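W.,

You were right to be curious about this one. When I first looked at the sequence I had no strong expectations either way, so I just let the prediction run and decided to look at it fresh. Below is the sequence, 114 residues in total, followed by the output.
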Amino acid sequence: MNTINFDWRLIAVILVLFLVIFSRSPQTNIVVLAIGAGWALQAGLAPWRGSRGVLGSSKVTYWRGQRIVTKQRSRGRSVDLSPVQMLVSVLYLALGLGMAYTAIAIFVQLARYA
């Protein structure tokens, strides 16, 4: 059976774009920019975090009904990153910092006139 996999994140991106483009409220722009900055910074930092997980440094796998807990490497994965991954990561970090700076600048401008 042929099924079409639809990614619902596309609708979220389109909705956010409509909010930014058609919004006349600076408060909406601040919120959207802050959310975008957080996402871009998180995505940019993800390859540099190495093998350290959020909840711990061990990996749990199951094989033939047995639980196997293995320790992760203690050193980072920076040597495993390709130049393209580093470039994309730096691009995400730059975009995230730019969006964060813009959100802060709009907020300061609003606070100054309030």
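Here's what jumped out at me. The longest helix spans residues 83-113. And, maybe more interesting for your project: The mean pLDDT is 82.

Coffee later to discuss?

I.
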